[in-house]
């Protein structure tokens, strides 16, 4: 019988020493192999790293990230520190890739190589039934697609899940992200935590959208491949507004009739990977996306479902179907989901769904990673169980 379990702790203590003491008291009786930290950006992360590590059991690995909000089974918070102490039948290898902005493909390759080296396994030999990679990147570098190419270059079957380290500061000019790996606190980097286990596990994702059957084709993009200049041969913002029956000024994410309510998704087989537009550029009627775009690709128009019920059903029904006797869930929740929940007054409803999850900890992230895709407006999850 194999199992992976988790115990969580949370503190609002501001000073590193008292915060670490409070967290460790809540984890008393557990001897973790890996501790993950999700913490608000406005802290002394170097001091917090030292304070927590010196209190961890010998041999315990430590990783973490700054968040756009912290999560556990009791709710969604801002300004706190949440720890996930993971223990049971697994091994973990850690790798960090730096210089993400300059060479994202190289940074991804560096991170997975280091993680594999720690486990004594060659990248081509990673068995997708026993290995899964958790990825946390500096989300403000906008390099997910490139770093994923580096991680998957030597093994495209490896399952990946995670999201971008973030910041709950709402001023884009002041946002930054940090990543922890044992004694290091770095920026402009990507972390890979490679798990090896015989326990049940699954990488999952959920969103609150439904397909409509209406499709559009990206017929022209700009040189950065992040702006759609034309959809279906027409100026992108004008075509999207036509499909929604609104003015282009109403499209921006967060507006009541815009992208958040009727986003787009990339259909792969029977699955829909959310790739919601960000905002219209009214000067030339283009549309800015967070992910890279390819001319000729087809996107499906989605519609809003029941936010609370679809998330609750995911935790109560889908997750237990996918993972035998679920014991632990690491959560990477899109910051845009929280933005929309705040704007519609439904944060409590969304937070209450976490009570239906197995033992859970996580953060609001700057875009998400799932099975080699850069996605958004999605909750991605790495869940473990027992057999």
Automatic annotation (TrEMBL):
Domain FIST: 31-235
Entries under Pfam families matching the protein: FIST, FIST_C
Database matches in PANTHER family: BLR0328 PROTEIN
Positions of the FIST C-domain domain: 236-372
The species this protein was found in: Hyalangium rubrum
Name of the protein this chain belongs to: FIST N-terminal domain-containing protein
């Amino acid at each position: 019988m194999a199992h992976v379990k988790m115990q969580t702790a949370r503190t609002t203590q501001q000073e590193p020493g008292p915060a670490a003491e409070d967290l460790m008291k809540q984890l008393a009786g557990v001897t973790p192999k890996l501790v993950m930290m999700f913490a608000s950006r406005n802290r002394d992360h170097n001091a917090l790293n030292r304070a927590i590590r010196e209190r961890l059991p010998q041999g315990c690995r430590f990783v973490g990230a700054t968040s756009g909000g912290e999560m556990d089974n009791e709710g969604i918070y801002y300004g706190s520190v949440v720890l996930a102490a993971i223990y049971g039948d697994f091994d973990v290898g850690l790798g960090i890739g730096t210089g993400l902005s300059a060479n994202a493909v190289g940074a991804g390759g560096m991170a997975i190589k280091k993680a594999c080296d720690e486990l004594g396994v060659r990248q081509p030999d990673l068995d997708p039934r026993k290995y899964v990679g958790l990825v946390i990147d500096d989300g403000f570098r906008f390099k997910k697609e490139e770093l994923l190419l580096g991680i998957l270059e030597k093994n495209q079957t490896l399952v990946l899940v995670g999201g971008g380290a973030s910041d709950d500061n709402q001023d884009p000019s002041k946002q930054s992200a940090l990543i922890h790996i044992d004694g290091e606190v770095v920026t402009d980097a990507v972390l890979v935590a490679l798990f090896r286990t015989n326990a049940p596990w699954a990488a999952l994702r959920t969103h609150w959208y439904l397909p409509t059957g209406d499709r559009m084709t990206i017929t022209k993009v700009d040189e950065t491949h992040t702006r759609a200049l034309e959809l279906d041969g027409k100026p992108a913002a004008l075509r999207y507004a036509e499909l929604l029956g609104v003015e282009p000024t109403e499209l921006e994410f967060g507006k009541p009739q815009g992208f958040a309510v009727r986003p787009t998704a990339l259909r792969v087989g029977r699955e829909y990977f959310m790739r919601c537009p960000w905002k219209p550029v009214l000067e030339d009627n283009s549309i800015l996306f967070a992910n890279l775009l390819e001319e000729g690709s087809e996107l499906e128009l989605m519609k809003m479902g029941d936010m609370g019920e679809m998330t609750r059903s995911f935790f109560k029904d889908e997750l237990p179907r996918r993972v035998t006797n679920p014991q632990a869930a690491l959560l990477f929740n899109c910051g845009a989901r929280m933005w929309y929940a705040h704007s519609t007054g439904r944060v409590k409803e969304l937070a209450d769904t976490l009570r239906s999850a197995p033992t859970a900890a996580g953060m609001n992230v700057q875009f998400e990673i799932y099975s080699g895709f850069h996605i958004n407006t999605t909750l991605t999850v790495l869940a473990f169980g027992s057999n």
